[in-house]
Design a protein that fits this description.
Layout lengths: L2 H34 L2 H21 L5 H18 L4 H16 L5 H18 L1
Helix pairs in contact: 1-4, 1-5, 2-4, 3-4, 4-5
């Protein structure tokens, strides 16, 4: 492996790590905010996440890794746009976007986010 190849690999790893940390920080913030919401709104947000996740799972096999990351990031951006008028929708979108993106990122932080979101689904659907 050449010097430039090693440098490129190190930069890619650092980039993945930064995205993972962003997701982990966003998850901590989102979970804290969800806890503070009215229970009905919180449950609606989680239900929207679970429903959206089902739809995404059906569509994802046709997307590339980069496509899945783009969709995940777009869902997170959409969440910010509707926050003031529909918090349940906003949190549901953010969780869906973080779920799909964290499943594609290659870092311990992203893996942690994905596992936490999978556990939420597991606890609600069992």
């Amino acid at each position: 492996m050449g010097f430039f190849s090693a440098l490129r690999d190190a930069a890619a790893e650092a980039n993945e790590g930064a995205h993972g940390e962003r997701l982990k920080s966003g998850l901590a913030s989102t979970m804290s905010c969800l806890e503070a919401l009215d229970e009905r709104v919180r449950m609606l947000a989680i239900a929207r996440f679970i429903e959206s996740r089902k739809t995404l799972q059906q569509q994802m096999p046709n997307w590339s890794r980069e496509g899945r990351i783009k969709v995940g990031r777009a869902l997170q951006a959409d969440a910010r746009k509707c926050f003031d008028l529909d918090q349940a929708k906003s949190y549901g979108l953010w969780l869906s976007g973080a779920w799909i993106e964290s499943g594609e990122r290659q870092s311990a932080a992203a893996e942690y986010v994905h596992l936490v979101l999978e556990e939420i689904v597991k606890q609600v659907t069992e």
